[in-house]
Automatic annotation (TrEMBL):
The keyword Transmembrane applies. Keywords: Membrane, Transmembrane, Transmembrane helix. It is a multi-pass membrane protein. The lineage of its organism: Bacteria, Bacillati, Actinomycetota, Actinomycetes, Micromonosporales. PANTHER family: MAJOR FACILITATOR SUPERFAMILY (MFS) PROFILE DOMAIN-CONTAINING PROTEIN, PTHR23528. One of its GO terms (cellular component) is plasma membrane. Its main location: membrane. It is found in: Cell membrane. One of its GO terms (molecular function) is transmembrane transporter activity. Pfam families: MFS_1 (PF07690). InterPro entries: MFS, MFS_dom, MFS_trans_sf, Sugar_transporter_CS. Gene3D superfamilies: MFS general substrate transporter like domains (1.20.1250.20). This is MFS transporter.
Amino acid sequence: MVLAAFGLYFASLTPQIVTLAVRVTEIAPDRKTVALSTVILVGALMSIGSLPLFGALSDRTRSRWGRRRPWLVGGAATALIGLIVAGSVPTIAGVATGWALGSLGASAAFAGFLPLIPEFVPDRLRARLSGLIGFVVALSVLSGVLLGAQLVHQQLLMLALPGVVALAAALLLARVIRAVDRPATGDFPPFGVREFFGSYWLRTGGDRDFAWNWTSRFLVGLAYVGVQTYATFYLTDTVGMSIDDATAKYATFTAVSTPISVVCFLLSGYLSDRLGRRKAFVTVGAIILAAGLVVASVTQSVNGFLAAWLILSVGQAIYLTVDIAIAAEVVPDQAHAGKAMSVYQVATLLPNVGAPIIAVAVLAAGGSGNYPAFFMVLAVLGVLSAVTILFVRRIR
C-alpha cells in the first residue's frame, strides 16, 4: 500500500506542483497564471465530479477481479494516457484535456486504493500507515520537483514518467491483494441519478464527525495547495528568477524540507497510535502550517521563503500523518467505505479548484506581486482548519 501510494501521489501531485507550470510557461508565457489556474481547475472539477461516482461503483463492483482492483489498475492506466496527452499536445486546450483525463484516471485509482485502509488496516496501525503514506507523499513531491528540474526541456517525458510509475505500483498492489479483494456481496439499491447525487454526502450515523473532519481537511488543503502551486511563480514574479532557476530553486527547497517532513511523518504517526490521540496532532499541524504562511507573507527573499517553506512543511507533515487515520475511523458505514473515502478524497482535491480562484482574485486585486496578501489569506484558512477539527467528537 505504501508503494502504491507513492506511485499514485507521484502521478497526481507532480503535475500540480511543478510540471504543469513548466508546460504552461513553455506554451503561453504571457498568460501563464490564468492558463495554469484554468488547467488545474478543469482537472480538479473532473476529479471532484467523478470521485464519488467511482467510489460508490467500487463498493458495488462484482467482477471476478474483486471490487477494488479494477478501479485501481484501470484508473492508473487512464491517468498515464492523460499525462501523455498533456505532455504532447502543444496548446493550453490540449494540456487541459490531457490533465482532465489524467485526473479522471487518478480518481478511479484512488477510489480503489483508499477504501483498503478502513477495510484491511486495524485502527491501532492506521496512524503509522498514514505516516508512511505521508512520507511517500513527501518523497513523491521531492521526486516530482527534481524530475521537473531535470527534464524541464523534455516535457513529454517529464509528465508521462510519473504515470508509468503509478501504473507499475498499482499493478503490484493489485497482485498483492488478489486473495483478499473479493467481489461485492449483499444487496445494493439500483444506482441511478438520485444515488449519484447522493454520493456527495453520507446519511448514516456519524455524519457530523465525518463532515467536520472533511471541512478541516478542505481548509488546510486550500492553504498548502495554494503555496505549493504558486511557489514557482512567486520565485519568478517576486524574487525575479527565470523559470529554469525558479524550478531548480524549488527543487532545492523540497530537497531540504523532505528529510524534516519524513521525521515528522514517522514520529507523529507512531506517537498518535501509541497515545491513542488524533485531534491534538491535527490541530498543532494546522497552526504550524499557518505560521509558516505568515512568515512567507512578510518576506520577499529566497532565504526568507525557505524558512517559511520549512515551517509549513513541518505543519503539513504533522497534519497529514493523522488526518487519514481520522478519516478511516469516522467512516459511517464499512459497507460503503469506497464511497466514504472517495467523499473524503474530494476534500483533498477541491482545494485545486479553490486555491486558483483565491490566487486569481487576490493577485489580480493587487497585481502579480501581491503574494503577501495571498499568503496571509492562506494562513487564516490554516487557523480555521485547526478550529474545525475540534468539533469532531468521536475521537480523542
